[in-house]
Amino acid sequence: MAAIRGNLVPSLLLMLMLLSLPSISLAYKPGDIVPMSKMGQYHSSRTVWHDVIGRHCPIFAVNREVLIPIPKPMGYTGADPYKISFQVGREKFLIPWLLVINRKSSEVPTIDVYMRYSGSDLHGVTAKVVDMPHHYVDIHPEIRKQFWDPQHWPKHILVRYTWKEQSEIDVTSGFYVLFGSGLVMSFILSIYVLQSSREKLARFVKEAVAESSMPGGGVEKVE
């Protein structure tokens, strides 16, 4: 029994340590490339997830603008809208479908991506499609021309990554971590106490049985 208790407690402590590893493995440093993948939808047909190359991905804690190429979808006729979706980070935060082609606007689309972080952790990603700023079109008139040319593919979409830092003190998350750790430790201590009690009870029963088996119940009579 003592051997079992000796092996069980370290095993449970190791399990508690392993539970904290995912948050460590997902940590970023300023300047790290944040991996991203892309999926397209035209009609009812969707592509598989494709990894976005590094120079088009977000850079952790760095505001930047990139031009992401959009390949021509299979069966494209120009009659229906074309949507794209992204998964961002090793955490795979999902950006829902964004309408980028045939969105009933005469302006070239731009995707604004907002990323929330604290310390070395990415906490969330949101995005929306807006009109490309006119000053950008004035500087790069070829983008407008190529975007509206039905024969020119791939199209290029301006993506602007904007980072917002949050306080590292997250009371709710901290409470859940402490609460979970407390439950695990309570479970470990309960098993330890239970096994100790069983050993003491077994020893008490063994001694009681031994005493009761002695001649005269183990008690000397006094005449």
TrEMBL record:
Q: Where is the signal peptide?
A: 1-27
| Transmembrane spans | 174-194
The domain of life for this entry's organism is Eukaryota
Which molecular function term from Gene Ontology is one that the record holds?
Answer: helicase activity
Could you list this entry's UniProt keywords, alphabetically sorted. Answer: ATP-binding, Helicase, Hydrolase, Membrane, Nucleotide-binding, Signal, Transmembrane, Transmembrane helix
Q: What is this protein called?
A: ATP-dependent helicase/deoxyribonuclease subunit B
Organism of origin is Quillaja saponaria
